[in-house]
Protein 1
Amino acid sequence: MLVTVLALVAASLAAEAQPAGPIRTIGIIGHTRPSSFEEGLRELGWVEGKNVRFEQRISTDNQRLAHFAAELSRIPVDVIFAGNAASTRAAMEATRAIPIITVSADPVSTGFVASLARPGANVTGLAIMHTELSGKRLEILTQALPTARRIALLVNPANPSTPVVRRETEARALAIGVKLILFEASAPERVAKVMAAVAKERPDALVVQGDPLFFVTRQQLLEAAARHRLPAMWELRGFVEAGGLMSYGADPNELYRRAATYADRILRGTKPGDLPVEQATKFELVINLKTARALGITIPSPVLLRADHVVE
């Protein structure tokens, strides 16, 4: 009897938490399907096919993103989730009326929001702040490689965050006394040629910008770095688990899950301009010791002690 009563209470509470009304539509635009975003929504009571449906448009090509964003605005959707800076820019150019949730580097510097506390307009979300982290990555890399004095920086010029990334990294390079050598790639077919150019320059190490293009071509980049025996710093832990030397950055899955709370509040009636942008606060340093040994590198103990995770 008690079990039955408890089951009825649990069912009642679940029903109360369940958003009511017609099926709402969320547009998703970016370079990958953010499963953790959808998982976060399910935890908040938004179940695909029951009270929400997704219109997904996935691409790393900026022109296609612009086309997809315009398509989503015509459907129209109730809210757009933009998983990076390029897709946020495309969504903003397509609509100033539909709420947009961004997960991007620095939404203030890129002009997506007026300020973190008061976004204004139709965009809010989360700031990874990897423009600031780009300089920190360079610093950690040089601490791991004390003799490195010539560092290559690989960026995508088509990324709206790139000017800030360059400025922050160049400033840190000047401060710590290393020479920064800039390389650019804006399409998958350019990656192999650019990595060959990097190898020809023979830098001591490489820092790679966090960018969707470099995520989808990660295997190619990792193989080139290994082939040319080039120590590299990446943004995401997955690069290190796949053989990269080290990474420093936020967990995108956690950010996507947090973005679900923004979608939930907007779908329940809150205006995006009234939702402050949340900054990522947790960053992890990951080091692959197997890769370090293959490159003949000994990571200094102080750097190893700072690591949140070490791949043996």
Protein 2
Amino acid sequence: MTVELLLEGRNNAVSTLQYSSSKGFQVDGYDANRFRDRWGLIHARQMHGSFYDPLLMKPSRIGIEYLMPIFTDAIGSDDAEHMRQTLFNPGNLAQPYHSINTDVHKRIRYLETVGD
């Protein structure tokens, strides 16, 4: 999959192997910037060994019990409504994207080197 991503011109991507009982194994790719913090670093996600069954390649019973409330209550109706009103606002189609990086770049001042 990594080679396929490169052939598609996606050189800043992470290939992943996913499994579901209905579809089996699937290979996918994600933009690596999705995993970076605000300083551009990617941090490995640590998980306690009891949360994963390496033989079955899926969360263990304890892992499922732990994650179930998170998956069940992760997004409420108010969250979905907020996303609908902001991310999917039709006005976003006509407005340019506002980048905080552009705002910061406008305010950067470089010191000139003064000769002795």
Protein 3
Amino acid sequence: MIPLQVVSIVLVGAGALAVVLQRDPLRQAIVNSVYALLLVVLFMIYQAPDVALSMLVVGSIAYPLVLMVAIMRVRDRGEETTDRTGR
């Protein structure tokens, strides 16, 4: 195993741990996006550009975007509910 592969695997492991340790869902989505970028680098090192491209689009862009929009809509809906009840 070459040193670049070892460093990449260690970074991916650290990124996965960072995702798991996040408590706030919005922050977790952002860290998950960075983790997906680390996976893209790992896939490129192992010469799998098709998998890397798919992971780039889905893991780094589409999934975090959909998740953030959903979180914002739920938070906005929660604020509307508290405004109506007066609490």
Protein 4
Amino acid sequence: MATRAQETLKPRHRLLIVDDDESTRMLLAQILSKELNVEAQLAGTCEQAVRLAGNYAYDAVLLDLLMPGIGGLGVLAAIRAASPNASTPVIIVSVVSDQETVDRCMAAGASAYHVKPVRRVELISLVRGQLAARGQPKH
């Protein structure tokens, strides 16, 4: 059985959370940091998200669709086109729930889709599954 000190030394997964609503970014970071012991980096604009995803490797990205600028689909396209995160799981977290949008996001390279309002248990399970499929943390 691992001691508390050993658990803190284990590498943590790094997540990028992208949402133009600060309270949503903070909520997602709080839930996932506490429940999954991840390190969350936050982006409040599409431009910031593209810049961060272009410069740092993450273990997963949580991405809102409805954002000013190029929007979530534009960010997804930029991540998939050329970045250290081209194969990183991208989980769309959006209020948009119609099947056509979900299908469009999945066809564009999203790994999963979670409809807001955030359901804590479902989100944790979804992110945990994507991280498990991804493997060891990137550092």
